[in-house]
Amino acid sequence: MRLSWALLPLVAISLGAPGLASAHALGVPQPGVAGYQEGGWDVPPAEFREVQRKGFHDGVEGARKDFDLHRPPNVNNREEYRHPHVDPNLRDDYREGFRRGYETAVHHLEGH
Asked: Quick one: how many helices (H) and strands (E) in the chain?
């Protein structure tokens, strides 16, 4: 009876190992792999300030909307880019973040 209890953890580990191997074979990003960013492609760069992060997020969402509606990608056609609802002193930073988020999303959604 003691032998069967000792085998239980080994069986559990062996059953889980094929799942790990198939995730790796399918190209699922693994932490620590070059090019993998914690949180995914739609996470703003760490060096961005708060208003740039908001712009980045809004840019990603704007690109997704354009993509879903089959509109040609053009950041200048987004109302929130042309007329951001932020303090006038922060508009350039917001637009920089928005443009980066929009371009990143277009690149990702088009499969590049």
From this structure: 4, 0
